[in-house]
Amino acid sequence: MDLQFLGGADEVGRSALLVDGRLLLDYGMAADSPPRYPVDPPGGLDPEAVVVSHGHLDHAGAVPALLSGDARPPVHWTPPTRDLTRVLARDTLKLHGSTPQCPFTELDVQRLGEVSVTHGYREPFTACGGPDAGGYEVTFSDAGHIPGSAHVLVDDGETRLLYTGDFHTADQRLVAGTTARPDADVVVCESTYAADHHEDRTRVEERFVETVRTTLWEGGTVVVPAFAIGRTQEIMLVCAAHDLPCYVDGMGQRVTRLFCQSPDFLRDGDALRGAKSGARYVDGRDGQRRRIAAENTVIITTSGMLSGGPAMTYVPEVAGNPVNTVALTGYQVAGTPGRELLDTGSAEIDGRMTPVSAGVDLFNFSAHADRDGLEAFLDSYRDSEVITNHGDEPAAFAADLRGDGFDARSVDLGETVSL
To answer: Which helix (H) or strand (E) covers residue 16, if one does?
Structure first.
């Protein structure tokens, strides 16, 4: 089995792993300016089948581009991943569709319906003909990252490859942490937070609720920039569990509706439906957002790093009052307005530098395993070969694993590994 890393090797973003030149695992994009896409192998990319681990931009964002020519490879995924990929694709078209920065069209997005094949967890299926025909048996396991996220086990009859995708070992309100440990000869493991130790999830929620309640008691407004997929719904569930009033704005509204249609992929479908019923949705008409920004309430809105979306309206509206709070809910990448706000107390929003007198706090509701979670997961694979990827320092993580007795290595972009 040959593995070629077309993206996400020594970086976070644009994940793409080609197996034997035939089976493509993920095909994402990096939301830089301009966006970056996976590299092509020599001779071009023409997979016989595609498997997508989950519906985040960096793993699924470029999938429609695979259908821009004459090829129509089947695309295997869970139902939530299928639905999220379409949402992301249309958002990408909205942002970049009229420029060379987008490698697909609306027609390509529509073609996804022709090639889509959905599967549940622990339901083996064949790709490229199955092992008896020189192909593969593939099995999804719940990865505990977002609804529909999957570990991908690929078996060619000789080698069992586990592609972890993104995963979390701890429970969130939206999804339970992964408990799946399928037998594997080789594990390609994400390492996003390999250098970090997360604060206890219960304590993060306690701090968040305490900050929100204090701000509301003092008459202020809490703006919660949140990623549309996963984080918005997690904060909605936290607000519902603690009787905190909230509005929801941006793409997260649409994603919440999609998740409610797939309750089997949620930790508690009734809880999310209840949170959805208790929240108030914003449509943005006639200055509605500015009126809401003056209310004594919580506003959950995209984008999570203040790089666009309705947050561009809300943050400037609350910025001048020290009683208000901007509650960031996840890692802020260097160079983003969210990171700038944390580091300097100001941020460039819609082209203007905005000083923020409101309180600014970071609550890391991460959906990824940290160093302890990664090590706990990999402890089941001490007899397997481990390849670290999808991180800022996968080589350092691999070196630490080797020091702990693992057969571990990292890879470079474009590199091919023969197993």
So the answer is: strand 16-19
